[in-house]
Amino acid sequence: MDLGLAGKTAIVTGASSGIGLATAQALSAVGARVAGAARTITPELENAAAVTVSADLSTRDGAGTLVATALAEFGGIDILINNVGGGDPGRFATGGFLDSTDDQWRHLLDINLFSAVWTTRAALPSLIGHRGAIVNISSINARVPAGGLVGYSEAKAALTAFGKRLSEEFGPRGVRVNTVSPGVVGTRTWRGPGRVGATRAAAQGISHEEFLAALPERAAIASRRITEPEEVAALVTFLVSAKAANIIGADLVIDGGTLKTS
Q1: What per-residue confidence (pLDDT) applies to 189?
Q2: Residue 184: how many CA atoms within 13 Å on its side-chain side?
Q3: Which pLDDT tens digit goes with each residue over 152-185?
Q4: Sheet holding 79-82: strands in order across?
Q5: What is the DSSP letter of 185?
Q6: Who's near 128: CB < 8 A, 6+ residues apart?
Q7: Which of 74, 114, 152, 190 is an active site residue?
Q8: pTM score, two decimals?
Q9: Alpha carbon of 66 to those of 19, 125, 257: distances in Å?
C-alpha cells in the first residue's frame, strides 16, 4: 500500500531509541526524509535519519534549534512527531504526591508537555503551509494515572488535551493533529537495566526476567504480551499518511487491551 509519504519531510523527537527510533526507521523506509532529535545521537538513529540533531528538548532553546535545523536542511516540514517524554525514576522520589517536589513536576511537565508545545509552536507555520500532520505520543496513563512518578500521568493528560486543542484550531487550516496512547511498550524503559521495569522487579523481590514474563497477566493485557515499538511506529506512519486524511483529533490507544473502558 502506497502511503504517499515519499519525499515528505518529518521531525521525530526522542528518536535515539524505542518508539522514536522505530518511527524514524518506519518513515524513512517509506521514503520520507527524517530529522531525528535526541540528547544523544545513536548509530541506529544516524542510519535511519537524513539529519540528526543533538538537543535537550526539555528546553525551549533545544526545541527551537531542532526546528530551525530541519527547516534549513529540508526547506519545509510536512510531519511532526512529538515523541520525547518519560521520566527518570532514579532522579526523583517514587513515592506519593507528598514526596514529589516542584523540580520533579517541572521536569516532567517540560519533557512530556512543553517539549511538544515549544516544538509545535516553532514548526506550525511550515506545517500550515504544507498542510501537514502532527502526532503526539501520549500514554494510557493519561486516562488511568499509574503508580509511577507523580506528575507523569498528569503531564500526559495535558499533552492529550493539547492535541485536541490543536486539532480544533488547525484542522480547518489543513493540519491534521492526532494522539497515540500506548500502554506498556518493549522499550528500554521496561527492558533496560536500572529503568522502570528493573526497579519494579527489585521492589517485588524477583528477577527482571520474571517481572517481564509476568507483566502481561498482572497488567491484565488481553493480548497477553506487551506492545513492540515497531507496532506503535506503524500506527504513527499510517496516521501521517494520505490514507488517514480524515482522521483528525483522535486519541488512538495501542495497549493490547489493557484499558477496559472506551
Answers
A1: 85
A2: 25
A3: 999 999 999 999 999 999 999 999 999 999 999 9
A4: 51-54, 33-38, 9-13, 79-82, 133-137, 176-182, 251-254
A5: B
A6: 170, 173, 174, 175
A7: 152
A8: 0.96
A9: 19, 15, 35
The string of pLDDT tens digits covering residues 200-256 is 888 899 989 999 998 999 999 999 999 999 999 999 999 999 999 999 999 999 999
Give the pLDDT score at 194: 80
Block residue for cell numbers 498528569: 154
Q: Are strands 79-82 and 9-13 parallel, antiparallel or unpaired?
A: parallel
CB 35 within 8 A of CB 73: yes
Average pLDDT of every residue of the chain: 94
Which phi and psi angles does 186 have, rounded to 5°? -75, 60
Is 152 tagged catalytic?
Answer: yes
- The one-letter code for the residue type at 252 is L
